[in-house]
Every structure is written in structure tokens, then in C-alpha cells.
Amino acid sequence: MAVDRDHVLRSAAALLTRKSTATMDEVAKAAGISRATLHRHFAGRDALVRALEALGIEECEAALDAARLDDDSAQEAVRRFVTEIESAAGLLAFLYTENQLFEGEEQNAGWARIDARIAALFRRGQASGEFRIDLTPAWLTEALYGLLASGAWAVTEGRLAPKDFTHMIVELLLGGALRREES
Questions:
Q1: Which of 75, 144, 147, 179 is least surrounded by CB atoms within 10 angstroms?
Q2: What is the pLDDT of residues 90-141, one digit of tens each?
Q3: pLDDT by residue (tens digit) across 46-59?
Q4: What is the gyration radius of the CA atoms in the chain, in angstroms?
């Protein structure tokens, strides 16, 4: 029987989103395969996490494309991105806590591409006068990541209704990022 790698990765992502300390045995069980089969595809936890990283980057880039970041106002583009990334937010929250993905020279270049696209959106919003200029695009990008991770955890824990995910994140982020008229 052929193992569907995408199914295994998505099962692992769903489990690790809820329980980041899950063992490889638990991951195998969640995917409906044996531990030996899991190890044939992923030599260990690090290999699995790296494969999940590739999936996360793929999901982010797809959400960025679907959000049409250059259309309409920067505020609307942020709203569209948060809506588009919602289904992958749990995976991103898990990856956000995996320090080995962001240390040293082995960092995946995909994260830099994603950072650059989101920072460019915030720069566009600053240039158009929508967003505050005293907050750097890099900081706004990090704040967005933090809110996405927090929102995903809050939904997983039942502290936030899934239907409120986009609204809560966008309103908090943009409420703090909007340029205020000088009095």
C-alpha cells in the first residue's frame, strides 16, 4: 500500500498543532501508519519538522498569492492574507516555536521570501499613509506572525471562536498600526 506523504504531513501538522511534544509513535498513529513506515519517510523528528517547514512555506506562499497583496488598500490586503492563511495558522504556530528552523546557516530561504513580501505590504501601507511610520515593516511583520500564532493557539484551546480569528487579528494589528491624524 502506497503512503500518501501529503496525508502524513497534514496529519502530523494537525497533531503537532494540538500537542507540540507528540512522539513519532503518536504521529504515526495519527496518520494511520506504523512507526516503521513513518521512519521510512522521515528519519526522525528533525526530518519530519523540516518537511512540515516546507509545507508551511508552501501554504504561506499560496496564501500570499491568493491575498493579492498589491490590490486595493494595504489594510484590505492584510485582511485578505489573514483570511487566506487561517487554515495553515496552526501549522505556522507550531513551526514558530521550532527554534532549530530559525538558527544558523540552514535557515530555509522561503522564510526570507515570505518576510520580504509581507514587509513590502507594510511599506506600501506606510507610503500610502495608511500605516504608522514609526513602526518598521520588519516589526509589523513579526507582530503579524505573533498574532497569527496566538490566534491559532487560542482557537485550538477553545478560547477564540474560529469565526473570530480574522477579525480579532486584523483589528488588533491594524488598530495599532494605523496612522493617527496629528491634532
A1: 179
A2: 888 888 877 666 666 777 889 999 999 999 999 999 999 999 999 999 999 9
A3: 899 989 999 999 99
A4: 18
Cα angle, residue 19 at apex, residues 13 and 25 outer, rounded to 5° = 75
pTM of the model: 0.87
Q: Which residue has the cell 517547514?
A: 53
93 burial type by CB count under 10 A (0-12 exposed, 13-18 middle, 19+ buried):
buried
